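To the wet lab folks,

You asked to see what we're planning to order before we commit. Fair enough. Below is the target structure as tokens, and below that is the sequence we designed to fit it. If anything looks off to you, flag it before the synthesis order goes out.
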């Protein structure tokens, strides 16, 4: 039987020696790392290779422990701190920032769910101990991935086919996931699965260690974000009781509706960084080619800079509200705004800057060509721009955006 304590970094291991002293230091380290990540991004994109050296840099600089409480050896960052770090990393390499986002979604959700709420929901004390072990391992360098999406269901939790059944000692999790960033490189996977014994779509989260019963199928050969290693993952594995996150069954859809930041707004920070990279790469190319004196080019760059700044402010505001007032209706509205604007802005800015740069920038290997493809993925990742816009439209018209509609939001 696989245990949540198996296959992961020894919890007694010391955290990275170069761990940031505080979240501000972590943001500065991410800013300094961005050019290093950018120098490798082209090669990773061309080959589709997982950015192993990038992740090792994140590990050595203590960034995998960003969301981990200081008492467990981490940085104790807020969601606002996460957004700042992810934006900086994405300005260097979008794919690496996306892998980091998935890891932070696991550690951040665990670290930020209030213990009082967990106890009110009926979680056993054993869950709190298991949670602390998972977080301590992240501070020591363990990498986590998210296995939620499925073919035919996307990220809608109520439609997934992966199931779990209770066993004498835990749970049996069976199914297949797609778009699992970091597949084959993660120490454990956050898996969404529905209760096979229930007629209702009761969905739970499990932290499933890599190893026996977890098979990665190399399927990832996509337009953009090619270095994320987002392969399919097949599961037929038995896990212990402490693999059930929250210690309670059926929490996944409820948490997605009440606190959607890790499923929605965390992507927004990544794509603001990608959009910023498009402006920076475009400016460099235009100056090198002597095109920066053309009024039409200057106009495109001015609009691009303004759009990226505006989207960044929305993401910053959403992150601030999550940090200060998580779970309120107005905070959640900002979360959906942030994802919509970041995804659309990245695609629109990258396209406009590429057009201003001209045909030479469309050649394979040019930074703008890669950034354009990465940016195009922002509106497609969950929640897609169409889903975000619909959610906001229902809210603007006085409806219940989580439940009013022909299909479930999650």
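Sequence we intend to order:
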């Amino acid at each position: 039987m696989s245990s949540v304590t198996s296959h992961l970094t020894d919890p007694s291991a010391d955290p990275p020696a170069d761990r940031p002293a505080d979240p501000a230091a972590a943001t500065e380290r991410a800013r300094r790392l961005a050019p290093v990540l950018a120098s490798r991004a082209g090669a990773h994109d061309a080959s589709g290779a997982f950015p192993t050296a990038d992740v090792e840099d994140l590990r050595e600089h203590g960034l995998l422990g960003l969301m981990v409480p200081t008492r467990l050896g981490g940085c104790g960052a807020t969601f606002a701190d996460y957004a700042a770090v992810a934006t900086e990393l994405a300005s260097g390499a979008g794919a690496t920032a996306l892998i980091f986002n998935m890891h932070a979604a696991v550690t951040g959700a665990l670290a930020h769910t209030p213990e009082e709420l967990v106890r009110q929901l009926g979680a056993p004390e054993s869950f709190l101990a298991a949670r602390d072990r998972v977080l301590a391992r992240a501070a020591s360098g363990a990498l986590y991935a998210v296995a939620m999406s499925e073919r035919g269901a996307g990220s809608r939790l109520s439609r997934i086919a992966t199931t779990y059944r209770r066993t004498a000692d835990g749970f049996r999790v069976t199914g297949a996931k797609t778009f699992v960033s970091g597949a084959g490189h993660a120490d454990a996977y956050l898996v969404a699965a529905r209760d096979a014994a229930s007629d209702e779509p009761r969905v739970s989260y499990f932290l499933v260690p890599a190893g026996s019963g977890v098979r990665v199928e190399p399927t990832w050969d996509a337009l953009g974000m090619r270095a994320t290693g987002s392969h399919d993952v097949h599961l037929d594995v038995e896990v212990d009781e402490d693999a059930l996150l929250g210690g309670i069954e059926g929490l996944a859809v409820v948490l997605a509706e009440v606190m959607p930041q890790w499923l929605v707004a965390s992507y927004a920070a990544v794509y603001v960084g990608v959009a910023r990279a498009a402006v920076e790469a475009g400016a460099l190319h235009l100056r090198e080619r002597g095109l920066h004196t053309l009024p039409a080019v200057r106009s495109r760059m001015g609009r691009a800079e303004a759009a990226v700044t505006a989207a960044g402010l929305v993401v910053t505001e959403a992150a601030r509200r999550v940090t200060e007032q998580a779970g309120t209706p107005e905070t959640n509205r900002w979360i959906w705004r942030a994802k919509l604007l970041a995804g659309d802005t990245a695609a629109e800015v990258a396209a406009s800057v590429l057009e201003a740069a001209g045909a030479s920038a469309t050649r394979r290997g040019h930074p703008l060509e890669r950034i354009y493809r990465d940016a195009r993925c922002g509106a497609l990742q969950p929640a897609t721009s169409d889903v975000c816009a619909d959610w906001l439209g229902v809210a603007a018209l006085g409806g219940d955006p989580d439940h009013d509609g022909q299909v479930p939001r999650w």
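Structural context that might help your review: The mean pLDDT is 92. Residues 259-396 form a domain with the Butyryl-CoA Dehydrogenase, subunit A; domain 3 fold (CATH 1.20.140.10).

Thanks,
Computational group
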